Amino acid sequence: MKKTSLFLLLFGLLFFMAACSGEENAAGNEEENDTNASSDGEIIAWAWDQHFNIAALNVALEHYEDENFNLEIIENAQDDIVQRLNTGLSSGTMKGMPNIVLIEDQRAQSFLQSYPDAFYPIDDYFSTDDFADYKIAPTSYDGKQYGLPFDTGVTGLFYRTDLIEEAGYTHDDLVDITWGEFTEIAKDVTDKTGVAMISLDPNDLGILRVMMQTVGSWYTNPEGEITIANNDALREALEHYKTLLDNDSVKIVSDWSTFLASFNNGEVASVPSGNWIAPSISAEDSQNGLWKLAPIPRLEAAGAVNASNLGGSSWYVLNIDGKEAAAEFLGKTFGSNVDFYQDLVEEVGAIGTYKPASEGDAYTFENEYFNGQQIIYEFSQWMEDIPEVDYGLNTYGIEDILAAEVQNYLNGKSLDDVLADTQTQAENQFK
Amino acid sequence: MKKIRAILYQNSLVLKIFLVLLVSILSVTVLTVYSSMRMSSQLFMDTFSITNTKVMTQINERFYTFSNSIISASMAMENNGVIKQQLQEEYNSSLENHEYFYTIGQEMDKLQAHINDEATIVLLTNNNETFNTNFGVWDVDARILANSNIKRQIDQSQNKVQFFYENSELTNNQPMILVGKALKERSTQSTYGYFFTAIRERNLRNFYQEYTSEGNNILLLTPSGKIISSNLRDKIGEDSDELLQHVLDYEQDIQEYKSIQVFGQNYTILAEYVPSLHIYIVNLIDQDLLAQNLIDTNQTIIISVTVAIIALILAFIIVRKMTSSMSDLVYQISDMARYQFNKPLEVRGGYETRKTAEAFNYMLNELQDYVKLLISTQEKQRKSELKALQHQINPHFIYNTLTSIKFMMNQGKKEEASQTIESFIVLLQNTISNLDEIITVEQEIENLKNYVQIMQTRYSDRINVHYFVSPTSLELYVPKLILQPFIENAFFHAFTHKKAGHIHILVAEKDNFLICEMIDDGDGMKQSATQKHAPSKKNQLFSGIGVRNVHERIQLLYGLRYGVDISSEPGKGTKVEIRLPIEKKKT
């Protein structure tokens, strides 16, 4: 009797053990699956550009003192991010979506207006008053702030002092000029030096947007209506565009790398572009000290200012688990940390849109490459003047249509027809 | 060490049986576990390779689709009249250039629809201009591309689509797969541009990544042995002739899968050729690792070890129980001698042991009975022998004594003669007539005095005997004629050189012994001689009892604690000490 019970006990023990270890295994597998699907406590951020946006995130991490905060940064091409966001948000599953995502300002509205519930309002985590005014409209929707403004796309006119002087102009001749004056200087420069004034990609009409924004105009109005047909700013911009081409002042480029090559190889005398092009210009050592910076030219129209914007993006928090931690992180770094912005300028060369930061030492750094100019400081000053524009939903879509019509315009089609046709096509497509 | 050996020796039976059990249980366990694991991993490998063969086919199809899209894109570009025309014209003004670049850009965007979003199409013109549909994928520098080996190789190829793996300045040091083709005018065969497609290695990996796992690796291998893509990151870009050889061998074999050794590890290989891309898809399966994931070795081992341990413990307990009683029995038997075969065995343990012990005990009892009988018979015999000796009076003694008396009479020593006769009579009476074996000390002393008296008459008064008997011991009993042989010994042997001396006789109780001491100041003898207890027994002059017998007799009567002790020193004398029990009653 005693022995039988002993045996039973032993066998019972054996089965218990087997069962136990089996369960353990199953639990382990589940855990593994979990980490694959979504990670607990880990915040995921999507951004593009290893040397700019992702570097900025890393600087922010260094300034964030929360040991429980775990940020995983995933690099994706901008187009990838746009496509994945569209796919994910339109399906509504939110599975595999990041907590933090970088969106270019001119695209932001298309996301915010299409999927307002997918984003988490972050009004409570920072003060919008601290940021450049022009950044607020693209990053907010329906009275709520969704984006934390990151870098500015504030533009300037980089130019080659040697070529400009050879054409008989000085720095002062380039300060606070109109685009009309710019085209004339361009003609002189090309005629006298044989070098084109600017490089343009026929498939990228960014220069038109830069011109339009100097008077606060856009392809659409804040109500979302397409305003091309009667858009005086666009009309004037297109006239300048054609004049530049007619005068042979333009070096045509096909893509980004040929664009960079155009000024690095000394094929153009100026680069009117966003501040972010500065590191690419100064990458060419042989031109050290040959470059200077002037304010971007303005349109003739009333109220035009010598300040505009090209590019620039902001951080958004998606409305999924971990949103508070993500918003907290952004608020404590990009949203309010002056020291962080100093490091951002020094280490990454990125100019934020956080106004209090412009008083720091890093902003007054005299850049030798640009003849000792305090270019960061100048940019930060112009930044505050950038007219606020509602970029609307379809900037890039409209521009594709416009690009074709621009070609027609260059081939002799009347400007009125070009604008009217673009208006019609855009309305057909987007209304 | 010795102790351990002793313990081992004592438990050798348990150990032997246990060892046999241990070996058999362990070998059964190990063999079962091993063969079941082997069988299941074999089965797993079979099914796994079937699945993987299908997976390979699927991957192959994906690559086929991909390469098709590239080829169709390249065909589309070559057949694109707009591009062809634009590329063959000259452009002088900004305006003309603007149109040219715009048009080509538009056409390129259309071509992009042919291929995957993760790839880019690049058009290189003879003027070293590039048009790039997706420079996020490949930020190509026209000058580097125009001077690259890749372009030269394309020039040399006969209008064929060429595949390259590149990880250099050309691809901004990112591993990429480049596909290139020269655009040629049909009639003149002149090249008017180059078509390129680029896909990053990591995007190419997406074609098969989902099928890989730890230990289940996929590599893309060119026919020249270069690994152009893999989920094993560190292998990308490596040249491995070794692997290529295995792949070629595999191709020739008809086996479904094959075990090889590559990269210093054992793998199972599956491979498939992708004709459209001219690459091999190689599937390397780390069999051990996969089997490890499949078969929870730890669990199996833990369970089998537990089972084996439990079985061994049970076996040990049972064997131990069975053999311990037996080895205990053996131990008791071997220890028998220490207890004079007096201690019976403990009857316990199993049936066999109990019966053995009982039989052994029975035998032991019988044996003891016989031994006892034997001893008592011998004792009786000895006693009666001694008794007989006790009653014997040496006729020479009588004769000598009587002769002495006759001489006394002749010399007219009437008084002395009568005293001697008196002593002789009492002596004879006490020794022969008194049949008691045990007498009081008083009687013994009296006998002694009579004997001494006779001896003194015979040998004059040269030797003086002094008695010191404690009054309390007078009443005690001693064996008859226990002192006499020593006095006789002293008279005849102690004074051959000295001629005169004293003998002191002391009788007293001490430490629960009755001690009788006879000390003479005669010649003494060497210590070795004392061992022999005086000269031979044949020379007993008075009775049959000799010095030697006395010791024997005392021990026979009272035990080993009692007896005679003689110490002597030549020239100084001899001391005889007799230890006897204090007996107040006649036994």
UniProtKB/TrEMBL annotation, chain A:
Secreted recorded as keyword: no
Keywords: Signal
Entries under PROSITE patterns matching the protein: PROKAR_LIPOPROTEIN
InterPro entries the record matches: Bact_solute-bd_prot1 (IPR050490), SBP (IPR006059)
Domain of life: Bacteria
Name of the protein in its database record: Lactose/L-arabinose transport system substrate-binding protein
Signal peptide feature range: 1-21
From TrEMBL, chain B:
EC number(s) reported in the record: 2.7.13.3
Domain called Histidine kinase: residue spans: 393-584
Ranges in a coiled coil: none
GO MF term set: ATP binding; phosphorelay sensor kinase activity
Protein location: Cell membrane
Membrane topology of this protein: Multi-pass membrane protein
InterPro entries given in the database record: Bact_2-comp_sensor_kinase, HAMP_dom, HATPase_C_sf, HATPase_dom, His_kinase_dom, Sig_transdc_His_kin_internal
Record field: catalytic activity: ATP + protein L-histidine = ADP + protein N-phospho-L-histidine
GO cellular component, one term: plasma membrane
Keyword tags: ATP-binding, Cell membrane, Kinase, Membrane, Nucleotide-binding, Phosphoprotein, Transferase, Transmembrane, Transmembrane helix, Two-component regulatory system
Boundaries of every HAMP domain copy: 320-372
Transmembrane portions of the chain: 12-34, 301-319
Major enzyme class: transferase
Classification via Pfam families: HATPase_c (PF02518), His_kinase (PF06580)
Gene3D superfamilies given in the database record: 6.10.340.10, Histidine kinase-like ATPase, C-terminal domain (3.30.565.10)
PANTHER family noted in UniProt: SENSOR HISTIDINE KINASE YPDA
Protein name according to UniProt: histidine kinase
Organism, as annotated: Gracilibacillus halotolerans
